[in-house]
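Q: I have 691 residues here and want to know how they pack in 3D. Can you give me a structure?
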Amino acid sequence: MSFPGYNSIIPKDVATIGEILKENGYATSWFGKNHNTPSFVASQAGPFDQWPTGMGFEYFYGFVGGDTSQWQPNLFRNTTAIYPYLNNPKWNLTTAMADDAIGWMNQLNSIAPSKPFLVYYVPGGTHAPHHPTPEWIAKFKGKFDTGWEKLREEIFANQKRLGVIPAEAQLTPWPDGQAEFGGAKLPRWDSLTPDQKKLYARQMEVYAAYLAYTDYEIGRVIQAVEDLGKLDNTLIIYISGDNGASSEGTLLGTPNEIASFNGVDIPVEAQLKNFYDSWGSAQTFPHFAVPWSWALTTPFKWTKQVAAYFGGTRQGMAISWPGHIKETGGIRPQFHHVIDIVPTILEATGIKAPEVVNGIKQKPIEGVSLAYTFDAAGAKKPSTHKTQYFEMMGVHAIYHEGWVATTIPVRPPWVLGGSAMPDPASGFKWELFDLSRDWTQNQDMAAANPKKLKELQNLFMVEAKKYQVLPLDASAVSRFVAPRPSITAGMTEFNYSVPVTGIPLGDAPNLLNTSYTMTAAIEVPASGAEGMLMTQGGRFGGWGFYLLKGKPVFTWNLVGLQWPRWEGPEALAPGKHTLVFDFKYDGLGAGTLAFNNVSGIAQGGTGALTVDGKTVATLKMERTIPFILQWDETFDIGSDTGTGVNDRDYQVPFAFTGKIGKLNIKVNRPQLSPADIKRLEQGSQQKGARD
């Protein structure tokens, strides 16, 4: 079974807006988040055609992946990794990328002042991790002590006062276990203990600070355009948010998002004791509790990841073009989608959608321009975007001419585990909403208008086939950890002989849920040696093999909660040595996930560290990391980039001061026996029958 619409590749017959504008004489740039480059081409080996610079953007300054630390990011200039935060603890990407964008525009203006330009500006905020500076956090102290329900009421009142929602719009109910929410239930603020209130208020203070900080830096970039005297003729499209507010922080919130993605909840008491004062700093990778995300999707239902409801999809957008749009502060009610941005830019610039780019015939652009709404005469015109499908992890919806049909999630997005919908094409319960009368999807019309519901259900399948959405897949964990293309796919042995840094996780050995053996042939000089041999991940989850004051050490960082450690008793004498770390995994491995069974992952195992054939340390780990290491970190040889796996032992880059001869990693993944497969199949069938 293949999923061509979800293969992460942007094909050559759909040129980006960067490519189109570049070919029409524009200088093009991209700052911030790049979640378009597939992980399997994100290494130094390339190819680089799926990087911003390979897709029409002449300059790139940002990070590759879904999110990154703002204090120690996975940062690139074009295709070269850079580390401006080293020895600079006050450095923050949110400010740095604004500085870089302003510098790029000023340089361009100095050299070619008449050349038009594109700045695609994509801050990390307010996606997790929430990393504002302390000065911004201080501004919001005590602002959210009244809780998430009160915040929701205040947002709703402000939306009505500002006219950004209709006067008759209804506030959707709070999830108290209703069937319409799939049984999801969020705690009421008044039910919380004083400690819970203290922690959760702090989480929201940091989030709000991050939002305000991000907006301020965006304002600096816009001010720079005005300072150049070019604001009147610059089209600014400002889209706020990342789908709906995110709920990956779980019901408790987390100081370490990597922990939550590995199914680990950190108790409130531990969060208060260990992370309250440092929340938002480089010592955390934080995300807030789910009720805050639900409040921030007011007045709608649900949160990010739920494609069927506007709480998971609808975003605020502002457009400014001072020399062309005369009505400031106007509200536009028309339905549009993000695919309409490119046609809008093309119409505004007078550039025709190309039929051929770089010799390749182009597919028709699927969106429609919303430029017809720019003047007062277009304020009330009917939307030209008639039909739009939505889908994510099986949950789907279809909009058509003012109606929307939606599927009710069977699991909340903050629950990674649980049974997958076996037949997402027909297994979901549907709701139907008339948006002309019910702007917030609050009144289900499915029972009253089954004909319209059936019409939209059929239309969804037409659109899904057209846009390569099929086959639908409602799985969660198994999809999350499914093998991806990789230059290391199928490899069981890896050899390295020279220092290399910045290898992304997708192109590095995967040591989760498996047995493995690491061998390091090194030479210690007369003065002794220390430093990193090999490491993967960082402060919030990973492993490291290094010499510390001459002693060999292997350690796992179990999502910042435990650091199992194997250490030799003596510093290595000058000369050649062979170090071996051997780990025997006790579980059946990730193969059990194919049967919707997690019994094979996160199991324990026993590790042994040997020096020149002599065992110097043995330790059994009761549990291991199941799903993922810190994704904005890399696999490094000879030093450590990003953050260290144990701050108490060393500080990056911790370059090895000896000589590396050869480093070898052998991976021995568990294989399911016929008996294992039979047992797992029977268990899956029984579970399906119960469900």
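Q: Anything worth noting?
A: The first strand starts at residue 27 and ends at 34. Residues 194-227 form the longest helix (34 residues).
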